[in-house]
Structure formats: C-alpha cells, structure tokens
Design the sequence.
C-alpha cells in the first residue's frame, strides 16, 4: 500500500470503505440520523456531511476556504460541513453517495483520506450499533500511519512512550508500558475516541486514558 501507487493503490480502498458505509446507512430513520456521533457535538448526519466535504475539496478550494475563514481551520471545517448537509438524512446520504468514488482531496496524503473513511465511519457506526469487519491489512497500514504522524490528528504524540500491540494482526509500535487490543480499537484510541479505551488492556492504558480528551 502506498501513496505513490507502486504497490496496492489506496483509492480503491477508500472507495470500498465509503461504499460500505453508504450501504450501512441506507435504511436509517430520521431519528437515527440525529444520533450523537463519537465526534463531540456532531450528529451522525453531520459527520457524514463532513466526510462528503473532505471528498469534495481540491487543494485550491481548501485554501480559498481557509483564507475566507481567516485561517480559522475549525470555522472552515464547519463551513464546508454545512455545505454538504442535505435537507434531511436521505439527501445527506445521497450527497455522500455522489463522492464515493471521488479522488478529490484537500492537501493531505491519500492514506489520510483512508483514515477519514474508516475513523469517521466508526464515529457513525458505533453509536448506531453497526459493525464492520475491516480487512486487517488495511487497518494495519492505517495504524502504522497514525502511529507515525501528527499531521491530521495528534496520534503519534498521544502514544509517545507507550508500546502498542495489536491482538488481531501484526501492528506494533513504540516502547514502554503496553497497550494492547484490536487494531481498530488502537486506531480509534490513537485518534482520540474514548469509547474504545475500555477495549484495551495493559499497563499503558491509564496513561493513554489521560491523553485522550473526555467527550461530552
């Protein structure tokens, strides 16, 4: 797997995850669309609109938005999310379906878009009681990216001085007190999702818990 595309191309993996999420959400009621997501303050419908916006932004459009928002990145995210919110859940989902095979992205590496597709999918699926069995090689690649980067979220810094070890695959990184669990749970904890901390074991879990902000 590589951004350069010399091995397994990343875009088909991104597209597969988007398509799987669209399928999972096809029968949601309007009440379900308003379920609070794992992203503080956002419903599952708003998170889906955020994912749609990320798949709709070119680097130029992203920069124009940043300038328009006077370099307030949170304001830019909120503005772009609002652009992709349909009148109801069905329309929001239809807009997302329109970008399932998009290769448009802001100035981020392609693997960050895979992260968007998987992490935000879990932000949506878990509160709704939905489950997906992600391919372990895909999760392993993504976990390696987050374990070595603070580009999109502070993941590498969050796990500093800890040893992470997957129980369902080969992912391992770092040294220090152990944090073990499924690759997915490790990814979600690295990206700041408190809901997955209970699925982890090891002496390093209390340390990691202090570094993952409580969600309200």
Sequence:
């Amino acid at each position: 797997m590589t951004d350069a595309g010399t091995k397994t191309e990343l875009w088909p993996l991104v597209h597969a995850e988007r398509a799987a999420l669209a399928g999972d959400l096809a029968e949601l009621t309007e009440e379900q669309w308003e379920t609070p997501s794992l992203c503080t303050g956002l419903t599952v419908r708003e998170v889906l609109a955020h994912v749609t916006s990320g798949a709709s932004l070119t680097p130029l459009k992203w920069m124009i938005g940043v300038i328009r928002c006077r370099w307030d990145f949170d304001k830019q995210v909120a503005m772009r999310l609002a652009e992709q919110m349909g009148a109801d859940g069905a329309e929001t989902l239809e807009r997302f379906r329109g970008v399932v095979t998009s290769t448009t992205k802001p100035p981020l590496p392609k693997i960050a878009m895979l992260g968007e597709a998987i992490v935000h999918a879990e932000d949506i699926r878990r509160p709704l009681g939905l489950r997906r069995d992600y391919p372990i090689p895909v999760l392993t690649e993504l976990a390696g990216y987050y374990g070595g980067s603070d580009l999109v979220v502070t993941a590498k810094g969050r796990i500093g001085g800890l040893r992470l070890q997957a129980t369902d695959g080969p992912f391992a990184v770092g040294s220090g007190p152990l944090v073990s669990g499924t690759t997915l749970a490790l990814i979600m904890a690295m990206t700041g999702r408190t809901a997955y901390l209970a699925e982890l074991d090891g002496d390093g879990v209390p340390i990691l818990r202090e570094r993952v902000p409580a969600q309200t």
